[in-house]
């Protein structure tokens, strides 16, 4: 059974009229009087809130890595993830205590944060430590500073950190109370900005010395989102710096190359800013990560990209590649992505290698052989976490 047929066999329910009747300034501003957009956001929030409890491992008291649906239609959890747990905390803090307890098997977000922070004490993962510190600061947890120190210790040892993880550390520092962290925050932000190309208007995959390989020049959408968010948050917290200019340029670039159907494309050439390969298109980019960073940018005093946000959201209502939505109301999940049919990651590898040889070489003649019709029947808890954080955020 192909993906579209499988989705037809498991039709979704009609969208709810509202997500508990709650409307935030972000929802109101984004919907701009359009009832369809408002209802779509409410649907996303509702599915996210209902779906998170099944992603929680009650025995281990941590969120799973993903839910995966097999060929028979059975949905089962796989793995565990500290970083996804931290992202859920960032979203869950906007819910009331009873709603939080439904997510964390009887605990509030602040209580569950103690468990996440215990895991973070000895982690060797900069991203995990940074996200835990960020969530803990937002929740006012007394152990937040300890998690931050762990993240800073890990950052100091990395010659070429991942852009995403460095951006999360900047966001954590921007959330720290008081003013004693300002110097450190600006130092880390400066390191993040060292990788930014004002010519290409995008961030690289890693900061520091470029690594060898046929895809060393390739950066992904996440490499753009989290720096835009972090630099916007830092500017809003501490004021004038060049970070907001870089965030604005990067936001303009990803919006300029956005797909006709509202798609936020996946791989970019860090040398030019051009799209190397668009697919897969991830649902979390469409309904959470792109709106999240662009709204943070606007709220920090940067430009508004409301039209691009709305176009991205409409892809969630009906992805033109498959003629359906990835929102599954009946199962309370949002499926992960629409990808090309064919060997896993083959087109991305081929186009990365081709563009390495010549910047404008894309091998467009391959598109008909690898059409974007495959659905990834997987859902990860960071997706509903970011949905809640994006749309319920009232800071």
Topology:
Layout: H1 3-9, H2 25-31, H3 35-51, E1 56-57, E2 62-63, E3 66-69, E4 75-78, H4 82-92, H5 97-103, H6 109-120, H7 126-139, H8 144-156, H9 163-175, H10 182-194, E5 218-220, H11 222-238, H12 243-256, E6 267-269, E7 275-277, E8 281-282, H13 283-299, H14 306-317, E9 327-328, E10 333-334, E11 337-339, H15 346-357, E12 374-376, E13 378-379, H16 382-391
Antiparallel strand pairs: 1-2, 3-4, 3-13, 5-6, 6-7, 8-11, 9-10, 11-12
Q: What do the pLDDT scores average to?
A: 90
| Low-confidence runs | 1-20
N-to-C terminal Cα separation, in Å?
A: 46 Å
Number of helices: 16
Strand fraction equals: 5-15%
Helix content: 40-55%
* SS elements, strand count: 13
Radius of gyration: 20 Å
- Principal-axes geometry comes out as globular
SSE succession: HHHEEEEHHHHHHHEHHEEEHHEEEHEEH
Protein structure class: mainly alpha
Order of the strands making up the biggest sheet? 4-3-13
| Main β-sheet description | 3 strands, antiparallel
Report on the structure:
The protein is mostly helical and 395 residues long. Helix content is 50%, strand content 9%. The protein contains 16 helices and 13 strands. The chain has helices spanning 3-9, 25-31, 35-51, 82-92, 97-103, 109-120, 126-139, 144-156, 163-175, 182-194, 222-238, 243-256, 283-299, 306-317, 346-357, 382-391, and strands spanning 56-57, 62-63, 66-69, 75-78, 218-220, 267-269, 275-277, 281-282, 327-328, 333-334, 337-339, 374-376, 378-379. The strands form five sheets. The chain has a three-stranded antiparallel β-sheet, with no helix packed on it. A three-stranded antiparallel β-sheet has the order 5-6-7. A three-stranded antiparallel β-sheet has the order 8-11-12. Helix 2 (25-31) crosses helix 3 and helix 3 packs across helix 16. The termini are far apart. Mean pLDDT is 90; it is low at 1-20.
């Amino acid at each position: 059974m192909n993906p579209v047929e499988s989705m037809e066999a498991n039709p979704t329910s009609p969208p709810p009229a509202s997500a508990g009747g709650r409307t935030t300034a972000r929802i109101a501003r984004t919907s701009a009087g359009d009832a369809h957009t408002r209802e779509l956001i409410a649907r996303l929030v509702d599915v996210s809130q209902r779906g998170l409890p099944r992603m929680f491992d009650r025995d281990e008291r941590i969120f799973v890595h993903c839910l995966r649906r097999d060929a028979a239609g059975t949905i089962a959890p796989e793995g565990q993830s500290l970083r996804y747990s931290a992202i859920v905390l960032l979203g869950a803090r906007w819910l009331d205590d009873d709603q939080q307890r439904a997510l964390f098997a009887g605990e509030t977000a602040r209580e569950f944060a103690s468990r996440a922070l215990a895991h973070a004490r000895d982690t060797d993962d900069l991203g995990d430590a940074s996200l835990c510190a960020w969530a803990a600061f937002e929740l006012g947890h007394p152990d937040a500073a300890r998690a931050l120190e762990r993240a800073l210790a890990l950052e100091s040892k990395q010659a070429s950190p991942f852009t995403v993880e460095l951006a999360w550390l900047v966001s954590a520092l921007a959330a720290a109370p008081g003013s004693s962290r300002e110097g450190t925050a600006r130092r880390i932000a400066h390191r993040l900005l060292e990788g930014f190309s004002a010519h290409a208007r995008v961030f690289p995959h890693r900061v520091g010395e470029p690594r060898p390989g046929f895809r060393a020049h390739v950066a992904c959408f996440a490499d753009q989102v989290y720096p835009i968010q972090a630099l916007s948050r830092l500017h809003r917290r501490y004021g004038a710096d060049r970070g907001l200019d870089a965030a604005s340029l990067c936001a303009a670039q990803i919006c300029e190359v956005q797909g006709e159907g509202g798609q936020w494309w996946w791989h970019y050439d860090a040398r030019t800013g051009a799209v190397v390969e668009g697919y897969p298109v991830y649902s979390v980019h469409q309904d959470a990560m792109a709106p999240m960073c662009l709204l943070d940018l606007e709220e920090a005093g940067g430009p508004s990209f409301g039209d691009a946000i709305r176009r991205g959201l409409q892809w969630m209502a009906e992805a033109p590649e498959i003629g359906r939505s990835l929102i599954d109301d009946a199962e309370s999940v949002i499926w992960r992505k629409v990808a090309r049919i064919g060997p896993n990651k083959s087109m991305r590898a081929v186009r990365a290698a081709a563009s390495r040889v010549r910047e404008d070489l894309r091998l467009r003649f391959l598109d008909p052989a690898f059409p974007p019709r495959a659905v990834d029947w997987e859902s990860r808890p960071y997706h509903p976490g970011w949905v809640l954080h994006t749309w319920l955020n009232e800071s």
